[in-house]
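Colleagues,

For the teaching module next term, I've prepared a clean inverse folding example: a structure given as tokens, and then the sequence designed for it. I'd like students to try predicting residues themselves before seeing the answer, so please don't circulate the second half yet.
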């Protein structure tokens, strides 16, 4: 009897630890967008006073100096600036930005950037996305490419990760 109670207690403690780690890994914050840095980074005012830099997950938008960089920023701004957003986040990046999926009235803004042809699906980090989102983002990019929407209207676009580090791709061409 005592052994079975100990086993149940250990099992409950194990379940509690797993539950705590899962809830600690993911969080949701709500706030008003007060800044748009580029096509994949925003600033959210949380609780009326905490300014949080958010890097949209699952996408990589053209850099400001790249073709469509300004268009991507403007499109993101049109979707989010001054609006209340929900940010689903799991971690911070090496620059201290919160990484998050951004929703406005239930619409996935990250996915909308891809659909508009103004961001790539960031496949390097796709394994960090839930399977359904990963598939939706990949499908949206393929559709935008096929329909030549946004940056896909011009051939030979350089992905931002290559644009940021040309020395890594010079020898590959």
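(Answer key — instructors only)
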């Amino acid at each position: 009897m005592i052994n079975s109670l100990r086993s149940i207690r250990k099992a409950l403690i194990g379940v509690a630890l797993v539950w705590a780690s899962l809830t600690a890994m993911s969080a949701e914050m709500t706030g008003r967008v007060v800044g748009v840095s580029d096509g994949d980074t925003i600033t959210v005012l949380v609780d009326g006073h905490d300014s949080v830099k958010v890097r949209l997950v699952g996408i990589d938008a053209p850099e400001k100096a790249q073709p469509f960089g300004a268009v991507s920023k403007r499109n993101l701004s049109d979707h989010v600036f001054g609006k209340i957003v929900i940010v689903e986040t799991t971690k911070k990046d090496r620059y201290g930005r919160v990484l998050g999926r951004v929703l406005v009235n239930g619409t996935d803004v990250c996915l909308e950037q891809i659909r508009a042809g103004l961001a790539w699906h960031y496949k390097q980090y796709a394994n960090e996305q839930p399977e359904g989102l990963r598939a939706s983002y990949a499908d949206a990019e393929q559709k935008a490419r096929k329909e030549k929407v946004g940056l896909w209207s011009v051939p030979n676009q350089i992905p931002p990760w290559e644009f940021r580090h040309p020395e890594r791709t010079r020898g590959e061409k």
